[in-house]
Amino acid sequence: MHTWRLNFKKVEVPHTAVVTTCFLCKGTGEFKKCPNCKGDGDKTCEHCKGKDTGFCLHCLASGKLICITCRGQGSGNCSVCNEHRKVKQFIQMTVVWKYQRGEFIHEKSDLPDDLVRLVQGEVIFEQDQPQVNPITSYPVNELNKNSALLIEKHRSNSADMRIVRQRHQLRVVPVAEIEYHWKHLKARYWIYGKERCVFAPNYPQKSVCILL
Question: How far apart, in whole angstroms, are the C-alpha atoms of residue 167 and residue 165?
Fold first, then answer.
């Protein structure tokens, strides 16, 4: 199972199982009259509601569907216990795997942080283990501080859950800020990410082809 994806699994709670008389056939292993179709062998079509409109592809315009419990027989062997007359009952628990994501972007230029978030960079530090530790020795102290804050926030948000695994990553995204002059205009644009994306909010010409 992928650790970083939303998933769920249904499991039997230990020591809750009991063997009881089959609830459908009442312990006979068969039924003389199907409880689903009342012995008719078919049921009203759920799609056309039994109205023969001539267009229903599910019942072929018959208004009826074969009963899936007795397979159209009206009676037969019990489909729940398979003629064993007993069934196993237990408490079932649904285990849900969730992931929480937090981030801090340290970027001092006027380039919007949302743009930096979406591009590729270089991973220079990564932890992937049951419990990660904060970064403490990076030259930018603001990153060290926010590393600890992110981990603490994750733990506090998971107070009613069990943390299975954590991943802590430090990624560097290249950002270049260029100042230019065009006639009487003085403005800036940015080149960012390994893809060399361009952000030029005040570019003086509307149609232009740029090759980098």
Answer: 7
